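User: Could you check the structure of this?
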Amino acid sequence: MLLEGKHAVIYGGGGNVGGAVARAFAREGATVHLTGRTLEKLERVAAQVREAGGSATVAQVDAPTSRPSTPTPTR
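Assistant: Sure, the predicted C-alpha cells are below.
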C-alpha cells in the first residue's frame, strides 16, 4: 500500500471531493483525519472508511474566511 503508516488531514472531508480523496487515501493505507463544518457529513464518510477496513477520525472545524488585501497600485 502506497500510504501505509501515513496520516492525511482532509479539510472538507464530508463533501464529494474531500470524501472521495479520504476513501482513496484510506484504501492506500493512510489514516485519514476528516475536518469540515458539518459533523454529520464527516461521520458518514468516516463510517464508509471504517466499513472498508480503514481508520478515520473526525473534527468539526470552521476555517475563517479572510478577505484578500487590497492590492497596492504600481506605477
